[in-house]
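Notebook p. 47: complex prediction with zinc ion.
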Amino acid sequence: MTGDTYVNNMKRKAIFLDRDGTVSREIGYMTDIKRLQLLPRSAEAVGAINRSGFLAILATNQSGVARGLFPARSVHLAHARLRSLLARKGAFLDSVYFCPHHPREGRPPFRMHCQCRKPHPGMLLRAAREHRLDLKECYMVGDSVKDMEMARRAGATPVMVLTGYGRGERERLAESRNSRPAQIAGDLMEAITWILSRHGNPER
Ligand SMILES: [Mg+2]
Ligand SMILES: [Zn+2]
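Predicted complex, structure tokens below:
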């Protein structure tokens, strides 16, 4: 086997990012995409991922689609806006996954018991297949207990941020061992700095 083949067969790693309350401001259901705003230092944090050996992959629940509050198309538009806000600061997402479903609200096809709605691990499992990721080497950064639980179920390392719902959610952490974060960080930049420092890749 040549060295090149070996490299090509190596599994990759990613830092998964929740969207609302982690990368962008938590504003409830996004019925108007113009309200989508980055949190301070988010673009810098995503840029730091881009310069590391990790992929930056968004994973977000968007049950507003199932609830009939907005069409799936506006989720794609919101993500286009998010990408362009990041691009202004030289940062990018390698991939985006969202779950439009809800088990009880709305109508089929979006009303369903899916495996992609957090805390189910479906989005991470699918990303692992599509990007050949070793989930044990991956991290999930989010502001909610559901994000932490999804990470644990997928075998990734959960990191909690105190932006968005983070401060309130922190009190719920004690209730569930399955959702205990490996680290709690003030914001996304702090979370990414911690992750990269564990891999000998401190952000300068
Ligand atoms: Mg969130
Ligand atoms: Zn789903």
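Notes: The longest strand covers residues 54-61. Helices lie at 3-9, 42-50, 72-87, 122-131, 145-154, 166-170, 188-198.
Next step: compare against the earlier run before touching the bench.
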